[in-house]
Amino acid sequence: MHIFPQFTNMDIARGSAQESYARSVWAVLAQFGYAFVPDELNGLKVHRLENVMTMDRTLHGFFNNMDIWLVATVRWF
After folding, report:
1. Phi/psi at 2 (5° precision)
2. 71 — phi, psi (to 5°)?
3. How far apart are CA 57 and CA 36, in angstroms?
4. 10 or 25: whose pLDDT is higher?
């Protein structure tokens, strides 16, 4: 699965709900100091290994519902 899904940074129609959602995601990240993430995941770069993780179906559901989340232990930038 992608940590940040493809639909947050690819093929976004102007004025769509998808655009509104993507803007919200990137605004929250910017508030936490990660304003560079949209550029690093632009277009097909969304498929880079740094944006992919493997988890079972149950964990995936928890992650998507934000019942579990990632916590940085080392800065990677």
Report:
1. -90, 140
2. -125, 125
3. 30
4. 25
The reported pTM is 0.60
Indicate the helix (H) or strand (E) that contains 21: helix 17-31
Provide DSSP, 28-64.
Answer: HHHHTT-TTHHHHT-GGGGGSGGGB----HHHHHHHH
Question: pLDDT-based confidence at 37, cuts 50/70/90?
Answer: confident
Domain ranges in the chain are 6-64
Contacts of 56 (CB under 8 A, 6+ apart): none
Task: Give 3-state DSSP helix, strand, coil % of the chain, rounded to 5.
Answer: 50, 5, 50
For residue 20, give both structure tokens.
């509104």
